[in-house]
Prior knowledge:
Structural class: alpha/beta
Amino acid sequence: MKKISNILFASGLMMVSLIVGGAQSGCNAKSEGDASAETAAAGTEAVDEVAASSGTAKGSSDTAVAKNQAVSKKLQWFEYVEGYNKAKAENKILLVDAYTDWCGWCKVMDRETYTNAEVIAALNQDFVCVKFNPEVEKTHSFGKYNLKSQELLYWLANGQPGGYPTSYFVFHPTKNDERASQAGYLPPDQFLKLLAEVKKRH
């Protein structure tokens, strides 16, 4: 496994080219996404079905423990503005998963990476997670910004958006606009390495 590359600095904003060993897969055009989608099963809906109860609870306290365990195993996704405000209030890193409906690799990442127990635990501890489809037009008002979806994509990417999926990170919503990105699908083990690297910058 190759080491994650160094942080790159550009235009006063920290943009990461966190290249991890192995295939970097992503969708750059609808034709690629359609081909990949044929081999990718359920999409983002699978992410919302991760929670599972563990064992039979006995008594009210056991029931509460079981519910807490189920919640900790569930990854919660937010709209951008809601997620940004939550990350700001809780002083957490904002993770923005940029995807499209036609992107097959986005569905693979939803199915294989975002349902992984270790990934969920790491994200729940230090991150607030946002699902963002730049092709759905809406206005995103946060901080001093009021951006349309494509404008938000370019803001997140410091003017250089990649393919899909791309993971964008806003490090300090309470302080500044430092942000970083990693394009392409990553399996759970590589995504955990990425999260560990990102966490060091917080």
